[in-house]
């Protein structure tokens, strides 16, 4: 895991999705540990599925005094994302981009096709509005920013942190089970 300068990173400004207020990223971990989920795009079907998966941990996180916050790169698609209920608390904006050379093969790769299939089977739709070159990730920070427990940046749009890894990093027990990834065959993942 790469060393992260939380004091420097924490100064980045985010905009509250509810109030419009600008807050520093470090305010998210000031009073409690936090899981910060960085979405690629609010309209991304895969991101929506990942958000619905990580949201399964919310009751266990809350019971252990841990906050879960989603951060998106732009406001485009935010209202539709909120109405879909994929995550309860989120802010925006950040920026970390793929290059054209690595996003296209990754977006068409097996992991993305499998998660898109799973999302579709769960009734989760998406769109292609917004910055398609955006990357996502996840960071878990202890209260007061004393330590980074987990730091993850997507190499591919289909990369995500399993729920067990999140609860293990936090040292908590989770009562939920991760959704099953779909099995690719001629009917699924090839359309």
From TrEMBL:
<keyword id="KW-0560">Oxidoreductase</keyword>
<keyword id="KW-0963">Cytoplasm</keyword>
<dbReference type="InterPro" id="IPR032801">
    <property type="entry name" value="PXL2A/B/C"/>
</dbReference>
<dbReference type="GO" id="GO:0005829">
    <property type="term" value="C:cytosol"/>
</dbReference>
<keyword id="KW-0643">Prostaglandin biosynthesis</keyword>
<keyword id="KW-0275">Fatty acid biosynthesis</keyword>
<keyword id="KW-0521">NADP</keyword>
<dbReference type="Pfam" id="PF13911">
    <property type="entry name" value="AhpC-TSA_2"/>
</dbReference>
<dbReference type="InterPro" id="IPR036249">
    <property type="entry name" value="Thioredoxin-like_sf"/>
</dbReference>
<keyword id="KW-0443">Lipid metabolism</keyword>
<keyword id="KW-0644">Prostaglandin metabolism</keyword>
<comment type="function">
    <text>Catalyzes the reduction of prostaglandin-ethanolamide H(2) (prostamide H(2)) to prostamide F(2alpha) with NADPH as proton donor. Also able to reduce prostaglandin H(2) to prostaglandin F(2alpha).</text>
</comment>
<keyword id="KW-0444">Lipid biosynthesis</keyword>
<comment type="similarity">
    <text>Belongs to the peroxiredoxin-like PRXL2 family. Prostamide/prostaglandin F synthase subfamily.</text>
</comment>
<dbReference type="GO" id="GO:0047017">
    <property type="term" value="F:prostaglandin F synthase activity"/>
</dbReference>
<dbReference type="GO" id="GO:0001516">
    <property type="term" value="P:prostaglandin biosynthetic process"/>
</dbReference>
<keyword id="KW-0276">Fatty acid metabolism</keyword>
<protein>
    <recommendedName>
        <fullName>Prostamide/prostaglandin F synthase</fullName>
        <ecNumber>1.11.1.20</ecNumber>
    </recommendedName>
</protein>
């Amino acid at each position: 895991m790469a060393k992260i300068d939380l004091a420097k990173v924490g100064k980045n400004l985010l905009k509250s999705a509810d109030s419009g207020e600008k807050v520093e990223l470090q305010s998210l971990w000031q009073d409690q540990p936090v899981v910060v989920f960085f979405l690629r795009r609010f309209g991304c079907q895969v991101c929506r599925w990942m958000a619905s998966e990580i949201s399964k941990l919310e009751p266990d996180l809350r019971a252990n005094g841990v906050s879960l916050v989603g951060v998106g790169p732009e406001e485009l698609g935010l209202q539709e994302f909120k109405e879909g209920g994929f995550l309860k608390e989120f802010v925006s904006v950040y920026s970390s981009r793929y290059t054209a050379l690595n996003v296209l093969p990754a977006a068409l790769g097996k992991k993305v096709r499998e998660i898109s299939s799973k999302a579709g089977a769960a009734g989760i739709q998406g769109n292609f509005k917004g910055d398609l070159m955006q990357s996502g990730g996840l960071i878990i920070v202890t209260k007061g920013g004393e330590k980074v427990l987990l730091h993850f940046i997507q190499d591919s749009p289909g990369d995500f942190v399993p729920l067990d890894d999140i609860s293990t990093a936090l040292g908590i027990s989770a009562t939920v089970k991760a959704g099953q990834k779909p099995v690719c065959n001629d009917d699924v993942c090839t359309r």
